[in-house]
Amino acid sequence: MNSLVQHFTEQLPEALALLEKMVSMESPSFDKELTDRFVVFLGSKFQEIGGKVEFTPAEKVGNHLHVKFSLGSADPILLLGHTDTVWPAGEVAKRPFKIENGRATGPGVFDMKAGILLMWMALRVLKDRPVTVLLTSDEEIGSTSSRALIESEASRCRAIFVLEPSLPGGALKTARKGIGRFTVKAIGRAAHAGIDPEKGVNAIEEIARQILKLQTMSDAGRGTTVTVGVVQGGTRSNVVPAEATAEVDVRIASAEEAGRVAKMIQGLSPELSGARLEIRGGINRPPMVRNTETARLFEAARAIAAQLGVDLQEGATGGASDGNFTSALGIPTLDGLGAVGGGAHSIDEWVDLESLPLRAALIAGLIENCFR
Ligand SMILES: [Zn+2]
């Protein structure tokens, strides 16, 4: 195994040149043209190492990329990730890819271009194992165009390894909260605030009352949070407002909580006479629960890491990924296998370079282990 780390260490300059190219090619979730270009480039890199490349067209976001290696009779492993980043076009000009003090920095380097690099590094030495790579291009905006594709691809696989960024220090993610997004709109009646305010129904007052109810739905003991993050309403100060909305973020750790909170939000009723509520949205990603299959995969990863001299840890996060979908289907899923670093979605985002060969060896070892 240590010879594998040595191999990846020798390859590191070449791998870092590829990482630089990947970060320099921007891929914002909302920029189809740029992301498509990046996806085609990645396809060519995976093809060079023996993968069979296919693209699934997407209308508003970049096309999704699948790469298949040595598919035969055995159920493959799915390496799952995303090509899109949260950064707008032009960010790279402000903060170009840089290597300094053992760290790589630049937009999207940690979440998750270094994770894609790790897939490429591991598969280059494991060409003859049945592996499918699926890189979607709308993960950062809720995966609406790729969810069905993820679920159908995952259902053919024996296990899913998600190469999203690790927790601090390199820990894997064995539990993720699920996410719900709701919009609560209050509809009142507009009226002149000075001449006949009694004819109006104040939608802002109505939404304010609903916000207080929403904020009490959080339950720390059950890991549930309900957060009103955006409020809008009214037109002018001298008009009784006819409309106001609240956008709500929900995080849940179990399917039961998802059901309980969704029902409470959908069951909100207006308090002011003459007001109405329109409630939209729902649970977007189910929670990824640490089940026995996840625990088994983590134990395998821990044993492989120990052989590499790494004490691998696990943890839970409130953030969700496409691993939430595959785990909810009952397919063994291990997440956070991507780069070691920090600062995802922030301008301080960084990747630890020394850990890249170890991480590539861990992923290669995990894939091997599944076919033993
Ligand atoms: Zn990500």
How far the N terminus sits from the C terminus, by CA atoms, comes to 15 Å
- Topology order in helix (H) and strand (E) letters: HHEEEHEEHEHEEEEHEEEHEHEHEEEH
Q: Oligomerization state of this entry?
A: single chain
Q: Provide the β-strand percentage band.
A: 15-25%
CATH superfamily of the largest domain: Zn peptidases
Number of helices: 10
Strand order in the sheet with the most strands: 1-2-6-3-7-16
Low-confidence stretches are none
What compounds sit in this structure? zinc ion
CATH architecture of the largest domain: 3-Layer(aba) Sandwich
Written description of the protein model:
- The chain folds into two domains: 2-176 and 287-370, 3-Layer(aba) Sandwich (Aminopeptidase), CATH 3.40.630; 178-285, Alpha-Beta Plaits (2-Layer Sandwich), CATH 3.30.70.360.
- 35% of the residues lie in helices and 25% in strands.
- The chain has ten helices and 18 strands.
- The strands form five sheets. It has a six-stranded mixed sheet with strand order 1-2-6-3-7-16, sandwiched between helices. It has a four-stranded antiparallel sheet with strand order 4-5-18-17, with helices on one face. A four-stranded antiparallel sheet has the order 11-13-9-14, with helices on one face.
- A hairpin with a 7-residue loop joins strand 17 (341-342) and strand 18.
- The longest helix has 23 residues, at 2-24.
- It binds zinc ion (ZN).
- Residues 82, 111-112, 139, 164 line the site of zinc ion.
